Amino acid sequence: MSRVVIVGAGLAGLTAATDLSQAGVEVTVLEARDRVGGRTHGIEVAPGAWIDGGAAYLGDRHTDLAKTIADLGLKTVPTTMEGQSRFVLGHGRVTREGRFPPLSAVALGDLFDQLDDLVHRVRPGAPWRSDIADDQTAAEWAQRNLEHPDARAFFPLFLGEMMAADPADVSVLHMAFYLSSGGGLRYLNAFEGGAQDSRVDGGAHQLCRRLADELGSGVVRLNTPVYTIDQTARSAAVYCEGAMHICDAVVVAVPPPLADEIDLLPDAPVRRTTDRMAPGRAVKVHLIYPEPLWRERGLSGWSVNADGPLMSTVDDSPASGGAGVLTGFVTGRQATRYAALSPAEQRREAIAQSATIFPDLPEPTGFRVTNWVREQYSRGCYAALFGPGDWKLLGPHLAAPHGRVHWAGAETSTEFFGLMEGAIRSGHRAAAEILAHHQPLSS
Amino acid sequence: MSVEGISDIFGRVLEVGDVAAESDFFALGGDSLLATRVLSAVARDYGVELSFDDFAVAPTPAALAERIASVR
Fold first, then answer.
1. Of the candidates A186, A173, A109, A165, which has an alpha carbon nearest to the alpha carbon of residue A311?
2. How far apart are CA A107 and CA A297, in angstroms?
3. Contact B33 A106 (CB under 8 A)
4. Residue A314: which H helix or E strand, with range?
5. Phi-psi map region of A174: left, alpha, beta (phi>0 left; psi -120 to 50 alpha)
6. Which tens digit of pLDDT belongs to each residue from A372-430?
7. What is the 3-state secondary structure (H, E, C) of chain B?
8. Which residue of A111, A185, A186, A191 to mutate against B (max B Cβ within 10 Å)?
9. Residue A244: beta bridge partners?
């Protein structure tokens, strides 16, 4: 029997571990945190009522995720959005039907036309070969191409919501790639019929918990950061605090900035990060109420706001009842600032803003923050942000094995990059690579 | 300005084939994001700037053509 060590107990690592285990490989999963789940994280807001502090949404094109959900005996619930939305976009507070902001439709249409043109120029499986120059940031692109003030105002809000980026962080190529990889503008933006169609009933964190449980006791080792991977022609040795694991192959299933901090012996010929790469800029805030009080006032809970910290809010109340939850997304430039505040300041700002957006609601009874920007073992969320030149330099190497070391994680999938679906697809891919190349060596 | 011209815009934005004059944009899979792209195309082709609310009450090629004619 062969042995494989998996670094990282998020969706990618546990998917790879499950595939390998089912193929008869002996697996050990080393996880730096005191929990499994990676960028999924459950928060219990009332007894038995869980919400997602991390990745939450899925749509019908997320087929591998749907299969995992079904295999684990979990269910999905639709994201409900009925009622009026709130917009605070610099001209006071506006309440209106639907999710469309009170801005010039023609100006936004022109913005989306230009973005759609870029999306169609992405080469899906090999974005570094796209017909898009990789030397410009999205902020520079907007400066040159967006004329209408409404388009200029909406663009950073849109990029924050879609990919947790400030326009200055990402290259035009990364922006276009991300939008393409997630299924295009309409799909990535939409709730019903799009990438936010559903949630995992009871929370997406259950996926990794159940995958870990099914691997059996002792397979997943928590509180075990990996420092070094030393490989020879015959085997690999994975070093962590107080232990060394000898194996035939390794799956490194952590975000590239963390993977790059593991010492590789011999070193990989090419790095998988650059100093232009930025952490995904998202902080998730939860405003907790006894029940979804906005619904009885004809509101959906959806809001879009030009000023932070809460750039948008959405009704994420647990389907099981027990609480009403408005999730506030702090994204882009606001996330960097907000992430550095004290917990008391974070609370004060969010509660004050919620009173401006929803003066018809009482003060929330509970408040939670999941600060992904400061999360030591994620380094940002939704996913690493690639700056100018990064794709052309790193693209071909992100998923290319280094001897016995294979790479997984949401950043190694050109399909649904940065999403739960991408993470799961990368885990299946890494396991298949190992089963194809390494198992015969020692079996 | 023609109903056919608007049908062509619908078809291009929705990435579907022929769109009938009475087909409802939202029933064909359109949403507010795609609706803005119809309105930007209308502005380019016909020099008329309509709002999202204009489109919401006239979401077929025939109705939208009528709306455009009325404001030109």
1. A165
2. 31
3. no
4. strand A312-315
5. alpha
6. 999 999 999 999 999 999 999 999 999 999 999 999 999 999 999 999 999 999 999 99
7. CCHHHHHHHHHHHHCCCCCCCCCCCCCCCCCHHHHHHHHHHHHHHHCCCCCHHHHHCCCCHHHHHHHHHHHC
8. A186
9. A239
Q: What is the CA A251 to chain-centroid distance, rounded?
A: 20
Residues A116 and B37: beta-carbon distance below 8 Å: yes
Q: Which amino acid is at A123?
A: R
Give A364: exposed, middle or buried? Use CB within 10 Å, 0-12, 13-18, 19+: buried
Is the Cβ–Cβ distance between A301 and A355 less than 8 Å?
Answer: no
β-pair partners for A247: A236
**Can you read off the two tokens belonging to residue A253?**
């299933």
Q: For chain A, say whether B16 makes contact (Cβ under 8 Å).
A: no
**What tens digit of pLDDT does each residue of A330-380 get?**
999 999 999 999 999 999 999 999 999 999 999 999 999 999 999 999 999
Q: Check the CA dihedral A292-A295-A300-A305 and report its sign.
A: negative
Dist CA A237 CA A248 (whole Å): 9
- Is residue B43 less than 8 Å (CB to CB) from chain A? yes
* Calpha distance A94→A114 (Å, rounded): 27
- How many beta carbons lie within 10 A of that of residue A80, not counting itself? 15
Q: Determine the residue type at A274.
A: T
The model carries a pTM of: 0.96
d(CA A137, CA A129): 18
Sign of the Cα pseudo-torsion (A136, A140, A146, A151, in order): positive
Binary contact (B41, A109; C-beta < 8 A)? yes
The CA distance from A51 to A201, in Å, is 9
